Amino acid sequence: MQLEHRKIVLGICGGIAAYKCPELCRLLQKQGADVYTVVTASGAKLVSTATLQALSGHPVGSEIFTAADNIGHIELCADADCMVIAPATANTIAKLAHGLADNMLTAAALAAPCPLIIAPAMNSRMYRHPATQANLEILKQRGVFIIPPADGPLACGESGIGRMREPAEIAAYICALLNRHGLPFAENTLLPKPDAPRELTAQKLLPTASGAGLRVLITAGPTEEPIDPVRVITNKSSGKMGFALAQAARERGAEVTLIAGPVHLPTPAQVNRINVKTAQDMYDAVKAKLDDVDIVIGCAAVSDYRLAYVYPQKLKKETQGDSLTLTLIKNEDIIAMVGHANPRPFTVGFAAETMAGEAQAKEKLARKNLDLIALNDVSRSDVGFNSDDNALTVFDRDGKIADLPKAPKAVIAAQLTELIFNMVQSSRGTASGNKE
Ligand code: C5P
Q: For residue 21, what is the domain's CATH number?
């Protein structure tokens, strides 16, 4: 059970998908959650409040001004772990974006100190309308978690984007969010399981949206350099660190593009993933995005060399004999290209070293013109490549700025992104004369 002792407030707007909410309620309860529901007036026309009340075991919030409901809009979310609005209609999304609180659901959302998750559902044209997109963007920048709608048949008879995600997908998203690793600087590596909902309100809050308004590009994983149609030169990178960074950055409200070498890892929610194979593909993909990002984190273990000649047919030992010489030529250094770009984004590199780490890291930082470099001691067998743990030392141009001791990669990722975002946000504040 992934949601034991969690209180979840389920807000239901007037989209046809509201009929799926009793199932969502059941799925959350199956994981141990205590679910409270709140409906808008039109939501109440589409799903029976009697059903919701019977299922949840709590009165259904609907009218702000009726004491009979016995739940106030302020109290409803005060001790909740999260509020999820599913389906979220264009109308309610607009209200949320602009802070309207004209019904129990929007008032509860405005007063909610917990993370807010919305699952939009509407006709495609309504979804694509610039007004709706602008409102979603406002919410995204504010750190609201948006479960993007799917493409498919819609209630209006048309087909297109706008279908609410299935209850199982929404429930899985909530489980992933609430059980995430990686509260920065938390004593425990995992979010503690609450003993009782009320005691944990402070710890349950998600990290601040320190990445709001920032566009981040992360390279991750190994690259593959073909030798012939069946063989490649690659390295031991698992991609886990880069993927953890992408997730941590997204959780902090940033817009994240992940350029991934060949790895079999699931894409973190709401991260835009671009798959590449060779170092050259990765270089091209980074370059194409460079003008649209504020931060680049080079976490990929890029192959330093590629074959001078790629054999068009499979090499045969029968024809090659006892030895085979391959000529390699140097690949372009991606993060050095980023560091020397003009204008350049805030640039972060990694140094995976087996010896003389600190000197190497500092030399790389200068040569590649980076803002930060994270040193990773890959000679240790307990951290680094393929491990679920990592330990990093972070340097800026003036020297060491942080030691991140051994912890799960998700925790290290949370700490590193927090560090980067705070540096970038404070330099922006300074640049715009925003100092307090
Ligand atoms: O020089 P070295 O490969 O050790 O530097 C590691 C850092 O440079 C990492 O951040 C890695 O992602 C980046 N890198 C790159 N392009 C390359 C080689 C390394 O972006 N061709």
A: 3.40.50.1950
281 and 424 share a domain? Answer: yes
Which pLDDT tens digit goes with each residue over 120-179?
Answer: 999 999 999 999 999 998 887 777 888 889 988 888 788 889 999 999 999 988 887 787
Range of the domain at 43: 7-203
Nearest atom in ligand 1 to 304's CA: 21
| Closest C-alpha to ligand 1, atom 4 | 351
What value does the mean pLDDT of the chain take?
86
Strand pairing report for 82-88 and 7-12: parallel
Q: Which of 235, 350, 367 to mutate to test the pocket of ligand 1 (most atoms within 8 A of CB)?
A: 350
Domain count for the chain, please give it: 2
Asked if residue 387 belongs to a domain, the reply is: yes
pLDDT tens per residue, range 183-240: 322 222 233 333 332 222 333 344 457 788 899 999 999 999 999 999 999 998 999 9
Residue 327 in domain: yes
Residues with CB under 6 A from ligand 1: 219, 279, 298-300, 302, 304, 331, 333-335, 349-351, 364
Side chain identity at residue 376, one-letter code: N
What is the spatial distance between Cα 95 and Cα 106, in angstroms, rounded to a whole number?
Answer: 7
